[in-house]
Amino acid sequence: MSRIRINEHKDMRPPGFRKKETLSTVTFKKSAVCLRGNSLRLSIPKRVYSRQFVHLKLAFPPGVMVGGAQMVRLIFDKKKGEWFAHVVHKIEVPEPKKEGRIMAIDVGMKVFAASVGTDGKTSLYSGGELRAIDRYFAKRKAKCKSAGWKPRSRKKRASRQEKELNRKWGAQRRHFLHSLTKTIVDDAEARKTSTIVLGDLNGICKGKSWGKNGNQKLHAWPFDRFKEILTYKAALKGIRVEQISERGSSSACSVCGKKEPHKGTGRKTRGRYVCPFCGTDMQADVNGARNILKMYLHEEGLFRDLFSGVVADLARPAVNRFVWRDTTPNGHEAGMSRPGVWATVNSSA
After folding, report:
1. pLDDT tens digits, one per residue of 29-45
2. Count of C-beta atoms within a 10 Å radius of residue 274
3. Is 123 in contact with 115 (CB distance < 8 Å)?
Protein backbone atom coordinates (compact mmCIF):
# COMPACT_ATOMS: atom_id res chain seq x y z
CA MET A 1 0.00 0.00 0.00
CA SER A 2 1.46 3.36 -0.97
CA ARG A 3 1.76 6.24 1.42
CA ILE A 4 -0.92 8.95 1.11
CA ARG A 5 -0.08 12.65 1.22
CA ILE A 6 -2.81 15.28 1.58
CA ASN A 7 -2.84 17.74 -1.35
CA GLU A 8 0.49 16.28 -2.53
CA HIS A 9 2.30 18.03 0.34
CA LYS A 10 5.95 17.00 -0.06
CA ASP A 11 6.96 17.78 3.55
CA MET A 12 4.46 15.35 5.05
CA ARG A 13 5.84 12.01 6.25
CA PRO A 14 2.89 9.65 6.79
CA PRO A 15 3.64 6.33 8.51
CA GLY A 16 4.30 3.22 6.48
CA PHE A 17 1.87 0.31 6.56
CA ARG A 18 2.55 -3.26 7.50
CA LYS A 19 2.78 -5.62 4.59
CA LYS A 20 -0.12 -7.96 3.99
CA GLU A 21 -0.02 -11.53 5.29
CA THR A 22 2.55 -10.73 8.00
CA LEU A 23 2.24 -11.56 11.69
CA SER A 24 3.64 -9.21 14.32
CA THR A 25 5.12 -10.10 17.69
CA VAL A 26 2.55 -9.89 20.51
CA THR A 27 3.70 -8.96 24.03
CA PHE A 28 1.78 -9.83 27.20
CA LYS A 29 2.64 -8.13 30.49
CA LYS A 30 2.78 -9.81 33.88
CA SER A 31 -0.87 -9.05 34.72
CA ALA A 32 -2.02 -10.93 31.59
CA VAL A 33 0.13 -14.04 32.13
CA CYS A 34 -0.65 -17.15 34.16
CA LEU A 35 1.89 -19.97 33.93
CA ARG A 36 1.39 -23.30 35.75
CA GLY A 37 3.76 -26.05 34.78
CA ASN A 38 3.70 -26.13 30.98
CA SER A 39 0.19 -24.62 30.74
CA LEU A 40 0.14 -20.96 29.74
CA ARG A 41 -2.95 -18.77 29.94
CA LEU A 42 -2.89 -15.34 28.30
CA SER A 43 -5.56 -12.70 28.93
CA ILE A 44 -6.76 -10.65 25.96
CA PRO A 45 -9.44 -7.92 25.58
CA LYS A 46 -12.76 -9.67 25.04
CA ARG A 47 -14.34 -6.70 23.29
CA VAL A 48 -11.67 -6.84 20.59
CA TYR A 49 -11.13 -10.55 19.97
CA SER A 50 -14.51 -11.88 21.20
CA ARG A 51 -12.75 -14.14 23.70
CA GLN A 52 -11.10 -13.56 27.06
CA PHE A 53 -8.27 -16.10 27.31
CA VAL A 54 -5.84 -17.99 25.10
CA HIS A 55 -4.64 -21.35 26.46
CA LEU A 56 -1.33 -22.78 25.25
CA LYS A 57 0.75 -25.87 26.00
CA LEU A 58 4.48 -25.12 26.06
CA ALA A 59 7.37 -27.49 25.41
CA PHE A 60 10.36 -26.45 27.53
CA PRO A 61 13.91 -27.69 26.89
CA PRO A 62 14.99 -30.61 29.13
CA GLY A 63 16.06 -29.53 32.60
CA VAL A 64 14.54 -26.03 32.35
CA MET A 65 12.30 -24.96 35.25
CA VAL A 66 10.22 -21.83 34.63
CA GLY A 67 8.44 -19.97 37.41
CA GLY A 68 7.31 -16.45 38.22
CA ALA A 69 6.68 -15.35 34.63
CA GLN A 70 7.10 -11.58 34.21
CA MET A 71 6.34 -11.22 30.52
CA VAL A 72 5.57 -13.37 27.47
CA ARG A 73 6.21 -12.62 23.80
CA LEU A 74 4.53 -14.63 21.04
CA ILE A 75 6.82 -14.62 18.02
CA PHE A 76 6.08 -16.12 14.62
CA ASP A 77 9.01 -17.74 12.77
CA LYS A 78 8.46 -17.19 9.05
CA LYS A 79 11.00 -19.80 7.96
CA LYS A 80 9.63 -22.61 10.16
CA GLY A 81 6.01 -21.47 10.02
CA GLU A 82 5.67 -21.93 13.80
CA TRP A 83 4.85 -19.78 16.83
CA PHE A 84 7.30 -19.51 19.73
CA ALA A 85 6.72 -18.16 23.24
CA HIS A 86 9.54 -16.19 24.84
CA VAL A 87 8.96 -16.29 28.60
CA VAL A 88 10.74 -13.78 30.84
CA HIS A 89 10.82 -15.18 34.36
CA LYS A 90 12.63 -14.86 37.67
CA ILE A 91 15.41 -17.19 38.74
CA GLU A 92 17.11 -17.68 42.08
CA VAL A 93 20.69 -16.42 42.34
CA PRO A 94 22.89 -18.70 44.48
CA GLU A 95 24.85 -17.39 47.42
CA PRO A 96 28.40 -16.27 46.56
CA LYS A 97 31.07 -18.83 47.26
CA LYS A 98 32.93 -18.20 50.51
CA GLU A 99 36.06 -20.11 49.57
CA GLY A 100 37.84 -20.63 46.30
CA ARG A 101 40.55 -19.37 44.00
CA ILE A 102 40.98 -15.84 42.68
CA MET A 103 41.12 -14.95 38.98
CA ALA A 104 42.30 -11.58 37.64
CA ILE A 105 41.41 -10.29 34.18
CA ASP A 106 43.20 -7.58 32.21
CA VAL A 107 40.89 -6.14 29.54
CA GLY A 108 42.27 -4.71 26.29
CA MET A 109 41.54 -4.41 22.59
CA LYS A 110 43.83 -6.66 20.55
CA VAL A 111 43.69 -9.21 23.37
CA PHE A 112 40.19 -8.64 24.69
CA ALA A 113 40.83 -10.40 28.00
CA ALA A 114 43.85 -12.02 29.67
CA SER A 115 43.13 -14.06 32.79
CA VAL A 116 45.48 -15.30 35.49
CA GLY A 117 44.36 -17.41 38.45
CA THR A 118 45.93 -18.35 41.75
CA ASP A 119 46.20 -21.88 40.38
CA GLY A 120 48.91 -20.66 37.98
CA LYS A 121 46.86 -21.09 34.80
CA THR A 122 46.54 -18.30 32.24
CA SER A 123 44.25 -17.72 29.25
CA LEU A 124 44.11 -15.20 26.42
CA TYR A 125 40.91 -14.26 24.55
CA SER A 126 41.50 -12.50 21.25
CA GLY A 127 39.45 -9.46 20.26
CA GLY A 128 40.27 -9.81 16.57
CA GLU A 129 36.88 -11.22 15.61
CA LEU A 130 35.05 -8.31 17.21
CA ARG A 131 37.23 -5.88 15.28
CA ALA A 132 36.44 -7.85 12.09
CA ILE A 133 32.71 -7.45 12.77
CA ASP A 134 33.11 -3.71 13.30
CA ARG A 135 35.18 -3.22 10.15
CA TYR A 136 32.77 -5.22 8.00
CA PHE A 137 29.63 -3.34 9.04
CA ALA A 138 31.38 0.04 8.98
CA LYS A 139 32.28 -0.56 5.32
CA ARG A 140 28.74 -1.69 4.51
CA LYS A 141 27.23 1.38 6.20
CA ALA A 142 29.59 3.73 4.37
CA LYS A 143 28.04 2.61 1.06
CA CYS A 144 24.47 3.37 2.19
CA LYS A 145 22.70 6.47 0.99
CA SER A 146 20.38 8.41 3.28
CA ALA A 147 16.62 8.37 2.96
CA GLY A 148 15.59 10.86 0.29
CA TRP A 149 19.20 11.27 -0.85
CA LYS A 150 19.98 13.72 -3.66
CA PRO A 151 23.28 14.61 -5.35
CA ARG A 152 25.42 17.07 -3.32
CA SER A 153 23.13 16.74 -0.30
CA ARG A 154 24.44 16.00 3.17
CA LYS A 155 23.47 12.74 4.77
CA LYS A 156 20.71 13.39 7.32
CA ARG A 157 18.36 10.45 7.82
CA ALA A 158 19.31 6.78 7.97
CA SER A 159 17.85 4.61 5.24
CA ARG A 160 16.11 1.30 5.82
CA GLN A 161 19.23 -0.53 4.68
CA GLU A 162 21.39 1.34 7.18
CA LYS A 163 18.96 0.68 10.01
CA GLU A 164 18.95 -3.02 9.17
CA LEU A 165 22.76 -3.06 9.15
CA ASN A 166 22.79 -1.38 12.57
CA ARG A 167 20.43 -4.04 13.89
CA LYS A 168 22.61 -6.89 12.59
CA TRP A 169 25.77 -5.17 13.79
CA GLY A 170 24.42 -4.82 17.32
CA ALA A 171 23.14 -8.40 17.35
CA GLN A 172 26.52 -9.85 16.38
CA ARG A 173 28.40 -7.68 18.89
CA ARG A 174 26.05 -8.81 21.66
CA HIS A 175 26.42 -12.44 20.64
CA PHE A 176 30.21 -12.13 20.70
CA LEU A 177 30.17 -10.63 24.20
CA HIS A 178 27.75 -13.26 25.53
CA SER A 179 29.85 -16.08 24.03
CA LEU A 180 33.08 -14.62 25.41
CA THR A 181 31.76 -14.01 28.94
CA LYS A 182 30.14 -17.47 29.07
CA THR A 183 33.45 -19.08 28.13
CA ILE A 184 35.30 -17.09 30.81
CA VAL A 185 32.76 -17.90 33.53
CA ASP A 186 32.71 -21.59 32.61
CA ASP A 187 36.50 -21.62 32.79
CA ALA A 188 36.41 -19.87 36.18
CA GLU A 189 33.87 -22.38 37.51
CA ALA A 190 35.94 -25.33 36.29
CA ARG A 191 38.96 -23.89 38.11
CA LYS A 192 36.94 -23.53 41.36
CA THR A 193 37.10 -19.74 41.33
CA SER A 194 35.16 -17.72 43.92
CA THR A 195 36.17 -14.18 42.86
CA ILE A 196 36.96 -12.57 39.52
CA VAL A 197 38.92 -9.30 39.70
CA LEU A 198 38.69 -6.79 36.85
CA GLY A 199 40.92 -3.81 36.26
CA ASP A 200 38.92 -0.58 36.59
CA LEU A 201 39.06 1.29 33.27
CA ASN A 202 37.08 4.36 34.36
CA GLY A 203 38.74 7.50 33.09
CA ILE A 204 40.77 5.75 30.40
CA CYS A 205 39.32 8.10 27.78
CA LYS A 206 39.66 11.32 29.83
CA GLY A 207 42.54 13.69 29.27
CA LYS A 208 44.23 11.44 26.68
CA SER A 209 44.34 11.41 22.91
CA TRP A 210 45.16 8.31 20.91
CA GLY A 211 44.67 9.97 17.53
CA LYS A 212 41.48 10.28 15.47
CA ASN A 213 41.16 6.58 14.65
CA GLY A 214 42.42 5.44 18.05
CA ASN A 215 39.94 7.59 19.95
CA GLN A 216 37.05 6.36 17.77
CA LYS A 217 37.94 2.70 18.37
CA LEU A 218 38.52 3.22 22.10
CA HIS A 219 35.18 4.97 22.69
CA ALA A 220 33.32 2.27 20.72
CA TRP A 221 34.98 -0.68 22.48
CA PRO A 222 32.40 -2.36 24.80
CA PHE A 223 34.36 -2.37 28.10
CA ASP A 224 31.35 -1.50 30.29
CA ARG A 225 29.01 -3.92 28.53
CA PHE A 226 31.58 -6.70 28.96
CA LYS A 227 31.71 -6.00 32.70
CA GLU A 228 27.91 -5.98 33.05
CA ILE A 229 27.41 -9.28 31.22
CA LEU A 230 30.32 -10.95 33.01
CA THR A 231 29.01 -9.81 36.41
CA TYR A 232 25.53 -11.29 36.05
CA LYS A 233 26.73 -14.51 34.40
CA ALA A 234 29.26 -15.02 37.19
CA ALA A 235 26.60 -14.31 39.84
CA LEU A 236 24.51 -17.19 38.46
CA LYS A 237 27.47 -19.48 39.25
CA GLY A 238 28.03 -18.02 42.73
CA ILE A 239 31.15 -16.09 41.65
CA ARG A 240 31.74 -12.49 42.73
CA VAL A 241 33.14 -9.87 40.34
CA GLU A 242 35.13 -7.00 41.87
CA GLN A 243 37.02 -4.09 40.39
CA ILE A 244 40.27 -2.45 41.47
CA SER A 245 42.43 0.25 39.93
CA GLU A 246 44.86 -1.12 37.37
CA ARG A 247 47.08 1.96 37.44
CA GLY A 248 50.68 0.96 36.76
CA SER A 249 49.84 -2.68 36.02
CA SER A 250 51.21 -2.49 32.46
CA SER A 251 54.46 -0.69 33.28
CA ALA A 252 55.58 -2.87 36.21
CA CYS A 253 57.13 -6.33 36.22
CA SER A 254 54.92 -8.91 37.89
CA VAL A 255 57.95 -10.91 39.05
CA CYS A 256 60.35 -8.38 40.60
CA GLY A 257 57.75 -5.63 41.08
CA LYS A 258 59.94 -2.82 39.68
CA LYS A 259 58.50 -0.23 37.31
CA GLU A 260 60.19 0.55 34.03
CA PRO A 261 62.32 3.73 34.19
CA HIS A 262 60.78 5.23 31.03
CA LYS A 263 57.33 4.65 29.56
CA GLY A 264 57.37 1.87 26.97
CA THR A 265 60.79 0.52 27.97
CA GLY A 266 59.50 -3.00 28.67
CA ARG A 267 57.24 -3.29 25.62
CA LYS A 268 59.45 -4.81 22.92
CA THR A 269 56.44 -5.58 20.71
CA ARG A 270 52.66 -5.25 21.12
CA GLY A 271 52.30 -8.57 22.95
CA ARG A 272 55.71 -8.96 24.56
CA TYR A 273 56.98 -7.53 27.84
CA VAL A 274 60.64 -7.80 28.86
CA CYS A 275 61.61 -6.48 32.29
CA PRO A 276 64.66 -4.17 32.03
CA PHE A 277 65.74 -5.17 35.57
CA CYS A 278 65.27 -8.93 36.03
CA GLY A 279 64.95 -9.92 32.37
CA THR A 280 61.54 -11.61 32.75
CA ASP A 281 60.09 -12.27 29.29
CA MET A 282 56.33 -12.92 29.10
CA GLN A 283 53.14 -12.03 27.27
CA ALA A 284 52.37 -8.36 28.04
CA ASP A 285 48.67 -8.78 28.85
CA VAL A 286 49.43 -11.72 31.14
CA ASN A 287 51.94 -9.51 32.95
CA GLY A 288 49.20 -6.91 33.47
CA ALA A 289 46.74 -9.51 34.75
CA ARG A 290 49.34 -10.85 37.20
CA ASN A 291 49.90 -7.34 38.55
CA ILE A 292 46.14 -6.85 39.02
CA LEU A 293 46.01 -10.16 40.90
CA LYS A 294 48.95 -9.15 43.12
CA MET A 295 47.38 -5.77 43.95
CA TYR A 296 44.06 -7.36 44.89
CA LEU A 297 45.67 -10.02 47.08
CA HIS A 298 47.77 -7.36 48.83
CA GLU A 299 44.62 -5.32 49.56
CA GLU A 300 42.81 -8.38 50.92
CA GLY A 301 45.80 -9.60 52.93
CA LEU A 302 45.88 -12.91 51.03
CA PHE A 303 49.12 -12.46 49.11
CA ARG A 304 51.23 -15.01 51.00
CA ASP A 305 48.52 -17.67 51.12
CA LEU A 306 47.27 -17.66 47.54
CA PHE A 307 49.87 -16.12 45.26
CA SER A 308 52.40 -18.78 46.19
CA GLY A 309 50.50 -21.14 43.88
CA VAL A 310 51.10 -18.96 40.82
CA VAL A 311 54.15 -20.21 38.98
CA ALA A 312 56.69 -17.71 37.73
CA ASP A 313 57.03 -19.32 34.28
CA LEU A 314 53.93 -18.30 32.31
CA ALA A 315 55.53 -18.27 28.88
CA ARG A 316 52.85 -20.31 27.09
CA PRO A 317 49.33 -19.04 27.88
CA ALA A 318 46.31 -20.77 26.37
CA VAL A 319 44.59 -18.82 23.60
CA ASN A 320 40.88 -19.00 22.83
CA ARG A 321 39.84 -17.71 19.42
CA PHE A 322 36.28 -16.87 18.36
CA VAL A 323 35.76 -17.75 14.68
CA TRP A 324 32.31 -16.39 14.00
CA ARG A 325 32.54 -16.51 10.19
CA ASP A 326 33.39 -20.23 10.00
CA THR A 327 30.32 -21.46 11.87
CA THR A 328 27.79 -21.00 9.08
CA PRO A 329 27.80 -21.29 5.27
CA ASN A 330 25.79 -18.05 5.02
CA GLY A 331 28.85 -15.87 5.56
CA HIS A 332 28.92 -12.53 7.37
CA GLU A 333 25.18 -11.97 7.43
CA ALA A 334 24.45 -14.97 9.67
CA GLY A 335 27.88 -15.45 11.23
CA MET A 336 27.82 -16.42 14.91
CA SER A 337 30.76 -16.55 17.25
CA ARG A 338 31.64 -19.63 19.20
CA PRO A 339 34.58 -20.90 21.24
CA GLY A 340 37.19 -22.02 18.75
CA VAL A 341 40.21 -24.27 19.04
CA TRP A 342 42.37 -23.86 22.10
CA ALA A 343 46.02 -23.33 21.29
CA THR A 344 49.20 -22.21 22.96
CA VAL A 345 51.48 -19.45 21.78
CA ASN A 346 54.92 -18.30 22.81
CA SER A 347 54.83 -15.09 24.84
CA SER A 348 57.52 -13.54 22.68
CA ALA A 349 55.39 -13.90 19.55
Report:
1. 888 888 888 888 888 87
2. 20
3. yes
- Closest Cα to residue 176, out of 340, 336, 342, 320? 336
Q: ∠126-295-106 over CA atoms, to 5°?
A: 10
Q: What are the tens digits of pLDDT across the range 130-161? A: 888 988 998 888 888 776 666 666 656 677 88
The answer to whether 243 and 198 are in contact (CB under 8 A) is yes
Beta strands at 193-200 and 122-126: parallel, antiparallel or unpaired? unpaired
DSSP characters over 14-70: PPP-PPTT----EEE-GGGEEEETTEEEEE--HHHHS-SEEEEE--PPTT----SEE
Band the pLDDT of 82: cuts 50, 70, 90: confident
Across the chain, the runs of DSSP E, i.e. the strands, are: 26-28, 33-36, 39-43, 53-57, 69-77, 82-89, 101-107, 111-117, 122-126, 193-200, 240-245, 267-269, 272-274, 281-283, 318-322, 339-344
d(CA 123, CA 117) in angstroms, rounded, equals 9
- Distance in angstroms (rounded) separating the CA atoms of residues 278 and 292: 19
pLDDT at 238: 94
pLDDT, mean of residues 162-171? 90
How buried is 297 (Cβ within 10 angstroms: 0-12 exposed, 13-18 middle, 19+ buried)? buried
